[in-house]
Amino acid sequence: MKSMEKRSLVVLLLTFGLVVSCNSSGGQTTTRKAADDEKCIREVCTVKKSSGERICYFKIGCVHQDGWDTLPEIIFWRRVVSLSKDSVLANVVETREGLMVFPKKKIDSLEQLGKLGQFRDELLVKYGINPTHHVRFTSGKNHFYRFDAIGNKMERGIKLFDSFGVDPFYAQSILLIESPGSNKQKSIAGAYGNFQLMPYVARSYGLRVDGYLDERENFDRSAYAAARLVKEICIPYARKWCETYGFAVDETALWFKLLALHNYNAGSGTVRGAMAVVPKTNQGNDLIKTLWKTSAGYFKSEAQNYSQLALACYLEFESQNLLHQPVSAVKYNKF
Fold first, then answer.
1. Could you give the 3-state DSSP secondary structure of residue 325?
2. Which residues contact 302 (CB under 8 A, 6 or more apart)?
3. Does domain 151-321 have CATH number 3.30.530.20?
4. What is the pLDDT of residues 15-26, one digit of tens each?
5. Residues 195, 220: Cα–Cα separation, whole Å
6. Do the beta carbons of residue 16 and residue 328 sit within 8 Å?
7. β-pair partners for 136
8. What does the alpha-carbon distance between residue 118 and residue 135 come to, in Å, rounded to a whole number?
């Protein structure tokens, strides 16, 4: 191992307090967890691009093992985030089944001619889809989901959240969904910065947001506020709503972390309304999958989609990094 790579690995070990390490040649295990915990290994991984740039990211356990990557909702969003904005994906609203990609100009032209409804019906027949279902045309979003432009933001976010005592899963997921290529995106509601914080949330955690300065543009400051929001609101209320409505609590499970992400996106009160109508029999992973199809109050399309996007964006980001040269990987055993 080259001296630079050794220093990189030592930094990771010191930063994350990890107990197992490996490098691209295989590495050696120094401490092993129980077999049932090994199923969902999480690692801080570093890869080197052909340009020499190094990307550090958080490898999430159980995404593949539990089959999240095989679900139609995740497959649908993976196609959307990797598709050009000049293209649209014809898909079935009720099942998220992707049918075919068309040039956006073709769909716009059919709509202008008043023939889009007829075209939808033709697609239902062509693909043998239930005639009571509906076809939607979703535009590609790879112009926004610029995972190649993340640079060192991911590593910085991982280290900061870890130092604040918050699982880096949340930093990575929020960065991948909210601002993978830029911190200049502002939502209609006013959320801004890499972590898409609302003004009142940012101010409540000590950030300055006024006509002269907006500290949501400062990565470290906004990461601090986002980490506190996750730690003090999103996770506690995910636990509270589970206990309130009869769902088992496992804060280390991926499904629970996805639930906390819903709180981050939609607000805990909105998520509470949706959980109140989910049958108690839908525990664990099934709770999340049911929320994807649950509308209650303000918990509608965008809110339903949030954890789907979290998984889809991670899988697309992971697939890009698998093409690069592995440098180091350190098992992460906290949280």
1. strand
2. 265, 266
3. no
4. 454 433 333 333
5. 10
6. no
7. 91
8. 11
Q: Which of 151, 153, 179, 218 is nearest to 309 (CA)?
A: 179
Residue type, 69: D
Structure tokens belonging to residue 297: 């109050």
Residue 16: predicted pLDDT: 53
Amino acid of residue 6: K
pLDDT in tens, 102-140: 999 999 999 999 999 999 999 999 999 999 999 999 999
Question: Is there a contact between 56 and 158 (Cβ–Cβ < 8 Å)?
Answer: yes
What is the full DSSP assignment across 146-176? -GGG-TTHHHHHHHHHHHTTS-HHHHHHHHH
How many other CB atoms sit within 10 Å of the CB of residue 225?
22
Indicate the burial class of 150 (C-beta count within 10 angstroms; 0-12, 13-18, 19 or more): buried
Domains in the chain: boundaries: 3-66+325-331, 84-139, 151-321
